[in-house]
Amino acid sequence: MTTLTKEEILAKSRSENQNKDLFDLEIQKKAFSISHLAFMFFCVAAMLLEFIFTKKIDCGYGMIFFGVQSVIFLYKYVKMHKLHELFVFLGYLAVFILAAVSFAVQLTRI
């Protein structure tokens, strides 16, 4: 059995992780999650404020939100090949298409 030095272990870990620090990767993942939640909050808040003040619902916010969600789940499906991710993607895609059509209709009525 070969005993590895601390430097050899670190070098091997860096090569396996493509020179990315695991702590940095975890922080990036957490930052993405937090920013995604903030994005959802801002979309819903903007939609609610617009409804409160204009009594209209702008489908553009929903189109953006569901478009982003569908891309996230498509990427997850492509990378993980889980059927669940595909079904969630298709659901978000369907709602995105409905929101996009509604948004286009709203634009033509102005």
Please provide a written account of the structure.
The protein has 110 residues and is mainly alpha-helical. The mean pLDDT is 88. 85% of the residues lie in helices and 0% in strands. It has four helices and no strands.
Topology of this protein?
Elements: H1 6-16, H2 22-54, H3 59-80, H4 83-109
Note the main attributes of this structure.
110 residues; mainly alpha; 0% strand; 85% helix
Helix and strand run = HHHH
Main β-sheet description: none
β-strand number: 0
Gap between N and C termini: 76 Å
Coarse morphology:
elongated
The total count of helices amounts to 4
Strand content: under 5%
Spatial extent as radius of gyration: 21 Å
Identify low-pLDDT runs.
Answer: none
Mean pLDDT: 88
Helix proportion: over 70%
Structural class assignment: mainly alpha
Quick structural summary:
With 110 residues, this protein is mainly α.
